[in-house]
Design goal:
alpha+beta, 109 residues, 3-stranded antiparallel beta sheet, globular
Length: 109
């Protein structure tokens, strides 16, 4: 599962062509469909330069990849979700929106 700031994408291991770091040191997943995804949590940071979490994540993903990849015609497509499957973060987002809307309504009165 690749999580963005707003949504998420589910990529089957059989549909992954390569996993590695791009030129900026961010984790990047290439699919057999020609798409490229970079998980938000592994976008590189000052801490990552020393701890190498992106390198370790790429290694762990590579360990789980099947020996033989499926051709693009047979590989499952990437499933996209608009809302992240993170209940606490989504609850905070909803509360923030309610606070903004209710505060905006009071300002109009």
């Amino acid at each position: 599962m690749v999580v963005d700031a707003v949504g998420a994408r589910e990529i089957a291991y059989a549909a992954v062509r390569t996993v590695g770091l791009n030129s900026q040191g961010h984790l990047e997943i290439q699919t057999v469909h020609g798409e490229s995804y970079a998980p938000l949590v592994f976008m590189g940071s000052l801490v990552d330069r020393f701890v190498k979490t992106s390198d370790r994540a790429a290694l762990e993903i590579r360990k789980k990849l099947p020996d033989k990849r499926l051709p693009a015609e047979e590989a499952p497509p990437v499933r996209k979700r608009l809302i992240r499957p993170c209940l606490p973060a989504d609850a905070c987002l909803v509360l923030a929106l309610v606070a903004v809307v209710s505060g905006g309504v009071r300002a109009l009165l």
